[in-house]
Amino acid sequence: MKSQKITILFLCTGNSCRSQMAEGWARHLKSDELEIYSAGIVKHGLNPSAVQVMAEVGVDISGQESQTIDELSKHEFDWVITLCGHADETCPIFPGKKVHRGFDDPPALAASATSQEEKLAPYRRVRDEIRDFVLTLPDSLPKG
């Protein structure tokens, strides 16, 4: 029997940072109305800095696993939300609807950081932007 919750897959390139944060926020804030998954086009493993900045706000994503879209191919999703341009352009066809909501890539932004605080700043900013987006779900999804 299909769940009454709206099923959402957050999709990113490596399922290491943005999609993991989105999954964590959605589970933390919206688990009563959403069934949440995350995946990547490829598997990069869970990003330790993403785990750290999520823990700072009381959301533990350390138990989440990085997985590829192929590992979820038997699931049906009401929505696939791509979080980066590469995932949006290379997203396989799924039953259900797809919407793109792009966020900056924290590892890329942190690459030239000279201190730990400077490195974590983009992770914190993107974490908060993703939280603000997740708070709008499912009402912000296109109708029809």
Automatic annotation (TrEMBL):
SMART domains in alphabetical order: LMWPc (SM00226)
Keyword Zinc-finger attached: no
Pfam families: LMWPc
Keyword Hydrolase (UniProt): no
InterPro entries linked to this entry: Ptyr_pPase, Ptyr_pPase_sf
Gene Ontology biological process: response to arsenic-containing substance
Superkingdom: Bacteria
Keyword annotations: Arsenical resistance
Domain Phosphotyrosine protein phosphatase I, chain residue ranges per copy: 6-140
Name the UniProt record assigns to this protein: Protein tyrosine phosphatase
